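SEVERITY: medium
COMPONENT: batch folding queue
REPORTER: lab tech (J.R.)

DESCRIPTION
The queue accepted two submissions in a row. Attaching both inputs and their returned structure tokens so the on-call engineer can compare them side by side.

ATTACHMENT 1
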Amino acid sequence: MAESLFDSKEWKEVESQTLQLLQELIRFKSINYSTIDSGHESKVCEFIRSILIKEDIECSEILESNPGRGNLIARLRATNPDPELKPLALNVHLDVVPAPVEEEAWKKEGWKFDPFAGHINEEDGCLYGRGAVDMKNMVAMAISIMLFLKRRRVPLKRDVLLIALADEEDGGIHGAKWLVENYPADVECDVMLGEGGGFNFMAGTMNIGVALGEKGSMCYKLIARGPGGHASLPTLENPIFTISKVVQQLTNGQLRFILTPLVEEFFANVGSLLPFPKNRIFQQITSPTLSNIALYLIPKDKQYVFTPMLHNTAVPTIVQGGVKNNQIPSSCELTVNGRLLPGISQEEYFRDIRELLGESLFNPVPPSDKPKLEIEVTYFGEGHQQTTNDPRVQVYYRVIEEIISKHTNNTGRAIPFLLPATTDLRYFVRHPTRVPVCFGFLPVLFPD
């Protein structure tokens, strides 16, 4: 695209424009504190809308699910529309996870620069700021793409959408989920690009990951109960003690091995690129009996990424228990973040959790007949996956393959993979009238 549509001088101008946009976007403190009145994405929507409207790019009004929680749909109309083709959509979210705002606080937490300044460090040439990678970089790219296509009058057979969303960092309830439920016709598309992939998987190479699926996400509480009492009379029935053992088991244990088609395809692709004996080690990662041994033999930073592709996970995140120093509480709650491989139900997941922790914890205990440990689910969203064997996926995946090959002088290739995390794409793959092909593809090259 860079070579065929504009010269190097124009490319530099687009780069400069996109960088400036990213700096301005980072300066919006669109922090999602997981509260209804945080995020303030409407202010970012106003900024984006003002830029696109000036170029006569069609924009919706700011669509607020709640006051301040804005979403925006921009549409670049096809110049030579093909009635068989629905739009291509660029999916971005505008909120960011928390970072300190005050200078004393961000310095104390180890930030070199103000997280909301969009500072470019002259020493390493990198831009620093909350959202620089997740994902205001793609917001800036998407705006630049819309501007470029409009200014250059690029012939289009289908509409191009920019869908800017609130609340991705807290489950997308006030963003993607709300938009799909309330404006399904406005976000209908054939193919959608979002976050989750687009980075080089192997140091020193241009082998780029393309996410064709995501794990499901679940938030639940494990609630331990006991008789309570005075702290001068210690007891093993202390709920805090029960939860401490649960945390240890979840941290040191592992849920069962599960191999999905997309993950099998991923390891086959990566293995084919490696020399002997690394390729043989990779072949064993998909073996139920040898997987952990093979993972142990590869670098730890790769273990960290690959292991969640093969297992459901349960990560303790919050512990709440006790109200007074000299009182043994009657309950203690552990909040757990669970990630489920595509196709796994809640029932299957919790069957594995009960097996890991011990069934006796969940059995009724007399005289109350209540279990020592109870489960309370607060959120659940299913995972999804596609594979390159799907004809609909193939059409668009080949385009990504060709672009990567062309711009790496045939040294790089696309690698389909399962994202161990979850993005807003989860709601669009369940669109009520038209399910798009969804790719996690946010081009960014990390230093080796």
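ATTACHMENT 2
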Amino acid sequence: MAQFLNIRRRWERRAAVESIRHRSIPACWCCCTPAFLAREKMACLSCDLRSLNFFERAMRSFMRRRAVDCQFGGVDQRKIFMFAREHLPRIGYKKRIHLMNPLVPGLGKSGKMSSSEPLSKVDFDDDDKAIADKFSQAYSVDGQVQGNGILAMLKYVVFRRLESAKRAFVVKRDAKWGGDLVFNSYKEIEEAFAAKTLASVDLKPAVAAEIMQLVKPLRDAINKHTDLLNAAYPVEKKEAAPAPKAAPTTEATIASFDVVVGKIVHVERHPNADSLYVEKIDIGEGEGKERTIISGLVNFVPIEQMQNRLVLVIANLPVKTMRGVASQGMVFAASHKSEDGKTSTAVALVDPPAGSKPGDRLQWPAELGVADPELSSKRMERVLKKLKTNDAGVAVFEHKGAELPFTTAAGVCTSTLKNGSVS
């Protein structure tokens, strides 16, 4: 008991979540923790009511001056609220009024709004550019209302402000797309979005603009008291960034590409782009380390032909975000172009030879050099001009008048599309 009283003196300065880390009297904590959390509005339901006498003494001491009449929280706190209503009256505290509000989904695909996912939320000190970037990358599927963080923020935040100001919500669009849209209620927006007459690409900047107006006075107030902000959230000292990788000095060749055999273990349509696939590809880097790669093959290769297929992956490209999804490489495919060279009329993947396995690499003569640590777009473009499939469908690199075939330890790589460009 003396140990408990010594710890109790520190509870005045610590949240219950910090207190439960003490291990000297574990039997006490399994009893007291839920009641502490009922006060702190945190979801925990474990309680050993066999120790109720000790529970009463501890809670009376801890909550002597902490009785409340009304408690506010999200609907995710409903269980601990019910715990409080049932058990706190047993030790002399009246039932509280509990007010709960809906949970607003985050802006990311997971639907979670959390500090661990910076792009899932808007901070009060975010500048306009940060807010615009977060909304431009926000996950939103046209026609899908449920779990849409943008619509939820519009409903529970933006429209409260618009209604008090008695003004409409305006979505600005170019005249060639039908001109501006004006909505006088959230219901109108939801119906238009569900009917796909309002697209995510138009909705995002409109909501971002409203949030910018809402955040600005809050940000200005925070910036006037940066000393308090820095005291509350000290900036962690970061280690110096490593020196940038030196640019290769050799001529770019196909050997500058780190091309590796990969297996598509999962593929799905890109949530924000109709012509793109999002693939999980095993390139032999280990279990759970499959790469996410985006490919514009929806109009040319059926999804069932993509699943479990072996492909050639360029593994040393910088990560590139495409419509909100980061792509960690590129797959090789052969294509035929239209007369103006701007569009592809036919596309087929370049296939590794039979017997290949994830992790196998293309083999080239030593004179062509080695793979760049990170392949720049300029060096890649120079080499892509020299890649093609020949009359036999073999993928080749044109070098000094010769055609060098794409080769692994298992043989040459081919495509069903002959005499095409490879990229």
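NOTES FROM REPORTER
The two ends are 73 Å apart (CA to CA).
No errors were logged for either attachment.
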